[in-house]
Amino acid sequence: IPVDEDYQTNVEGIYAVGDAIGGAMLAHKAEEEGSACSEIIAGQSAHVDYGTIPGIVYTHPEVARVGLNELEAEEKGIKVEVTRYGIDDLDRAIADSEAMGYVKVLTVPGKDKILGATIVGYHASELINEFILAMTHGLGLKKIMASIHIYPTLSESGKFAAGQWRKKNAPQWIMPYLEKFHRWSRG
What we know:
The protein is α+β, with helices and mostly antiparallel strands. It is about 35% helix and about 15% strand.
């Protein structure tokens, strides 16, 4: 059903959201559109950020994503930096015999701004929420890395992915000085 930016159909006072208006057919998308539509009808401003609506495939392992993936970025001519962390290295995943999959994060090259994230692994549907929150509120990988994560948990995978990004983006010019300093401090 065609609707305007306020979810109103061509008949005044009749609105439509969710599967009826097309796009991704996801219950959480419909719920978000319904909430926005209610706010608009009540005279409030509302907006659905379609760039942060996640998707999930409940397979084994699960596949979850939010924002751009590499193919979409390429099609749109958006340059991205890809950081990947293998869940096979995660203590909790190892303990649960679910040590397979990865966290992949797309960022603006050289910056920690998150453009998209894909998680393949055990409970990916739960783990993607950290990236949805970060993207919704403009938090980058540095903020994820700086937050304390309980050990051992699967959610550490987001922090470790952020750490992988930080390691790749450490200013290389300072490394020889840090090496000398650490050697000196250890005697």
